Amino acid sequence: xxxxxxxxxxxxxxxxxxxxxxxxxxxxxxxxxxxxxxxxxxxxxxxxxxxxxxxxxxxxxxxxxxxxxxxxxxxxx
Amino acid sequence: xxxxxxxxxxxxxxxxxxxxxxxxxxxxxxxxxxxxxxxxxxxxxxxxxxxxxxxxxxxxxxxxxxxxxxxxxxxxxxxxxxxxxxxxxxxxxxxxxxxxxxxxxxxxxxxxxxxxxxxxxxxxxxxxxxxxxxxxxxxxxxxxxxxxxxxxxxxxxxxxxxxxxxxxxxxxxxxxxxxxxxxxxxxxxxxxxxxxxxxxxxxxxxxxxxxxxxxxxxxxxxxxxxxxxxxxxxxxxxxxxxxxxxxxxxxxxxxxxxxx
Lengths: 77, 260
Known about the structure:
Chain A has 77 residues and is mainly alpha-helical. Chain A has helices spanning 2-16, 21-40, 46-64, 69-76.
């Protein structure tokens, strides 16, 4: 029974969150900040999601891209 | 968003999922026998129909702002997953999604497993394979059609686009009886990732209370801006020397269990 619940949870985690949980967490935080700021102030808040998405995508791709060997060597020097 | 944009977005996204489901069903049918594969396909479609019947009225009863926040957030996470993989593939940092390789791998796996016996379903392995493929990929089709449709108050058009995509892919699959490797799937995924991300940003922020400059017209800026940004990321992260397996010879996502 526990195995089935785990498998069910793992399916939905993979389906919604995917390979990089930081992306899902970042989107959640950006929407939360947009929600709170929109209700507390009259400042435009549309840009929060735009900036967050641009940053999250670049960082996530950077983390998933293997570094070239010369870059690693340079970093260790 | 106009009706034509809604139709195109849903059609493209659902066509990609349908190609993946078709590849699995064809492998099950050719490798294990058509009777079990078709039984699995029909059982999968029936399961999806039950899910649609349960989810459809529930989705339309949720307040629009809440719906846009939740659906926009989910679409955004979905879209970023797709776009991330599309950029990694286009820049040579990840193997291209190859339906022929996925088909051959699934076919080989099916042929190494012993058949069971049964009257209605002669082979439960083939049945389960087809069933899982249809339900998992179909779930994404249902999700995309329901969310896009309910956000634009036109579930009917989104449903027509989804059904049209599935029928076109199914007809092509029946005609050629082979995986649709000629469909430019990686390019389609790139476009779908851009659209899901742009729509997710728009609806998510709007549902959270943000006001977009120009209202709905902001989408006309967001979609090309996301596309341009993705192309810039491809150029920035492009590998100078392609990986040995970057052109489809390595483990595909189906083999590694990764379906986006």
